[in-house]
Amino acid sequence: MKTELTREQILSTVARARHQRSLAAGEFWATTLRHGLAWLGRTLDKSLHTLLMSPTTHHR
């Protein structure tokens, strides 16, 4: 049995799908940014540790 959808039902479904897609895209970018910043922090930490703990560094 085939159910006919009204124009309003179709528009409501499309709007809901767009909203969900927008939320998913925002979550993707937030996760990507968080991982990128965490990687940058680890890299800077390792670099500074290597630089400051180097035996050739003159400590005052």
Task: Describe what you observe in this structure.
With 60 residues, the protein is mainly alpha-helical. The chain has one domain. The protein has one helix spanning 7-52. The longest helix is centred in the middle third of the chain and has 46 residues, at 7-52.
How are the secondary structure elements laid out?
Blueprint: H1 7-52
- What is the strand content? under 5%
Secondary-structure-based class equals mainly alpha
Order of helices and strands: H
* Helix residue percentage: over 70%
Q: Using DSSP, what is the number of strands?
A: 0
- Rg is 26 Å
Please, how many helices?
Answer: 1
Total domains: 1
How far is it from the N-terminal to the C-terminal residue, by CA? 85 Å
User: Low-confidence spans: pLDDT under 50, at least 5 residues?
Assistant: none
Report on the biggest sheet. none
Mean pLDDT: 91
- Which shape, going by the Cα principal axes? rod-shaped
